[in-house]
């Protein structure tokens, strides 16, 4: 009894201490945002202005990409030669006959001994194929997106969450459908899209283990223990995994791989942006509340900062990114240029009023400052009249909404994703 009391007291003190620390470090006061100068996506490092699409494509874009590769997310070290796809299941009468359900495993080493990614694919029966698709990673396994008992349980390490039926880092049947509110499967299918998802832990389990599990070790040279300082962290690995999912989709006759929107929430929203920047086969990116290291400008240091994210999640970015802890001004890029790398393809960015941690204004401004690149390439980008008004989405080639409420994916968010996708991905 006495012991329990002290444990609880100790826990409370720990939490309180952490919050005190946070209160000192984290800025939510707009007047305390430091003065900053952003790198201009349309000025080359030697000061020459980029005035033609050819200059953008031939010189500037690759220079920006290289900086992100080496300083932020980290480079993918190479190619795997033996990736294979294994179709585990096809059911033509899933979801009461509404959909075809396919479950396909991407074997990164060509066999079961290495890491592998289980794709869950729903294709609406009633729509004419091939179809555009949403592709998004999930946090707790494919079985969480829908109550469909035909979905294979996730086989990877997953974060413990007793509320979600996840114990000892293993998914159980009790986790079926626990994240259905974030994945309105039937609505997506009824709108004429396929839905493709996989658990991000299949690619690289989301905890800091010094890069011993996941796909990174498959690329180590003899004697290498962890990625080099300019080589990939977990976000780049997850993004790479999304590209491997797209490799599979290119072989699937029911899907139009030229019309795939890569979508993600939060850390996976950062991942979706980076995936679309790195892999121009993605026709669209949707980044839900991606915040720091996603769509939010790092230099504003509002809410989560570079130092904070590198401390809480030392495995997400490349080791070089830590050089910019509390030195955002030294970064040769900022996140508006991540959005610019996706140009001229459509990108949709969201925020929530109560999600100040992700810096809504920083994301809106990044969309604005990416726009000159879209204009150079003949697209609208963020429309000039765009404003940050809760519940009033704007949809240029860059779309944006801020809605009331918290950090989450809601049916409102999906409603906008579908409207945005309808503008660009429907034939
Ligand atoms: C938070 C992190 C954010 C965001 C979020 C999430 O703890 O600070 O950058 O990625 O997690 O992914 O849910």
Description:
With 427 residues, the chain is α/β, with parallel strands linked by helices. The protein is 30% helix and 18% strand. It has helices spanning 2-25, 53-71, 94-97, 185-190, 234-249, 267-278, 306-312, 336-342, 360-376, 411-425, and strands at 84-93, 99-107, 116-124, 131-138, 166-167, 170-171, 194-199, 255-265, 284-288, 347-352, 394-395, 398-403. Strand 2 and strand 3 form a beta hairpin. Helix 5 packs across helix 6 (267-278) and helix 6 (267-278) packs across helix 8 (336-342). The site of beta-D-galactopyranuronic acid has 7 residues, from helix 7. Beta-D-galactopyranuronic acid (GTR) binds at residues 266-267, 291-292, 304, 309, 312.
Task: Summarize this entry quickly.
This protein has helices at 2-25, 53-71, 94-97, 185-190, 234-249, 267-278, 306-312, 336-342, 360-376, 411-425; strands spanning 84-93, 99-107, 116-124, 131-138, 166-167, 170-171, 194-199, 255-265, 284-288, 347-352, 394-395, 398-403.
List the helices and strands and how they pair.
Blueprint: H1 2-25, H2 53-71, E1 84-93, H3 94-97, E2 99-107, E3 116-124, E4 131-138, E5 166-167, E6 170-171, H4 185-190, E7 194-199, H5 234-249, E8 255-265, H6 267-278, E9 284-288, H7 306-312, H8 336-342, E10 347-352, H9 360-376, E11 394-395, E12 398-403, H10 411-425
Parallel strand pairs: 4-7, 4-8, 8-9, 9-10, 10-12
Antiparallel strand pairs: 1-2, 2-3, 3-7, 5-6, 11-12
Helix pairs in contact: 5-6, 6-8, 8-9
This protein binds beta-D-galactopyranuronic acid.
